[in-house]
From TrEMBL:
The keyword Transmembrane helix applies. This is Exporter of polyketide antibiotics. It comes from the Bacteria. The chain crosses the membrane at residues 40-57, 106-126, 147-170, 182-202, 209-226, 260-281, 319-337, 365-386, 414-438, 458-477, 484-504, 524-548. It comes from Myceligenerans crystallogenes. Keywords: Membrane, Transmembrane, Transmembrane helix. The keyword Ribosomal protein does not apply.
Amino acid sequence: MSAVVTAPRGGRTAASSSRSTLTGTGRLVRFMLRRDRLRLVIWTAVVVAVYAASFAPDGEYEVLRDDAEAREKRALVLSAPVMTMLAGPGYGLDDYTMGAAVANELILWLVLTLAVMSILQVVRHTRSEEESSRAELVRAGVVGRHAPPVAAMIVVTIWNVVIAAASWAVFVGMGLPARDSFAMVAGLALAALVYAAVALVAAQAMESGGGAIGVAFAVLGGTYFVRTLGDLQERHGGALSWFSPIAWVQQTRAFVDLRWWPLAWCAVAAVVLLVVAGMLASRRDFGAGLVAVRPGRAGARPFLRGPVALAWVRQRAGMLWTAFGLGVFWLATGTILEQVPEMGEALAENPLYARMMAGTEAEQIRAFAGMIGLFAATGAAAYAIVMGTQVKADEETGRAELVLARPVGRVRWLAANTLVTLLGAVFVLAVGILAMAWGAELTGLEAVGPGDFARLGVAYLPAVAVYAGLAVAVHGWAPRATGVVWAVFGWSLAVGILADVLGLPDQARALSPFWWVSDVLTEGAEWGHVAGLAGVAAVLLVLGLAGFRRRDVPSV
């Protein structure tokens, strides 16, 4: 006589069900690493290049090694409240060493950079994959429910570990203490993983990839704001500072008075957030978010008809949040313009700023404002690329086919999306320039007036349009090669920051559209170059529309 053992409802035991949720994780990790290997190489190379340029013989920090007077001036600059906001609490200012300068001045910006990288990576492999229905195809195989998010976190961890190891090697190679160097790079990696876990939680709550990224970026901005308030309340960080992962890394006090225990907060926060993300993932339907989507109107308003209105509805939230976040930052930057001459001697030791510190106080302020205008234009260009490449996602998910099935021509559809993208980029740039002008006005600055800021913004508009045009051209002819657009953007950023430090020839600098915009506030605008950039942007837009008209949809 044989006995039949009946399994619980569902066909498998609780133990096997628990184990099966991670089935296929290893294969997904290998797939994601292969898919993103180029991104990994580029991000690592960029971070290492920034370090290497800073420690070069004429680099920003190498000049401080044997110059006590330069270090003293640098410490004086860092003690100002505005620099506390833009850098951190400032440790070791009484005896400012090269290591202390690296930690005080780089931690904040590296945490923000690695956090953005990690957030985008997690959302890319989780919520965005569900939104595009690719995750459904993956789940149709032998893949557990929790395997994709766990694999995404493993890949982000590997990514940050590789960058940390490369950074540590550069630090030690330049003569910094190995122990403190390890603490700093480990802290940066752990803080990035905290924000990656935040993104994973947001991916469970929101129903779209854009919404998840927006929530994660809001948390990133909120923790930056909290850290700033805490550090301004008390010299070496107040109670509010301890609610920010950024402060946890800074509180290690690397190269000054090393403390390991603040990093435990990063590890604990990351683990707690991962547990929360796992619980939320188990309680939601596949493809849905926990935050209910607000129902729309029963009937659309008349002005919402047509592809332009559709593009506006899709892009408006991203445009407003981007303009708000960057505007707040440039507003704060505008308030420190009047203090540039006070920092002149210390900034002159830095090859990046040496050229602009050569003139009178008014000329120094105008030159520094011009550089900040370049960074504001860079932010607008990044926005133009992100929104300009959204049409690729529309093709991948089938939304483009649904729209084109209506009486809407493909050129009209792409032109509508491009128009809204260009207007959004103009808005982001205008808000940034106006915010900087407002900040300068609040301090009573007279060296740079509203008219100067207006000319600065107008001069950079065609260069921003070139990036939007390049995104359209690449999508029109080779939609799989959108990485080319980001490569050009990355090179432009490197030219803007490291060109003088690395001594790049003009032929290399000319590959950046921003290089063709002269120092508007010091030398005057070269309107011929501005017109030339506008012509290049127009040609790229026409080429993109022509290419899109000729190829199949979708072909990505």
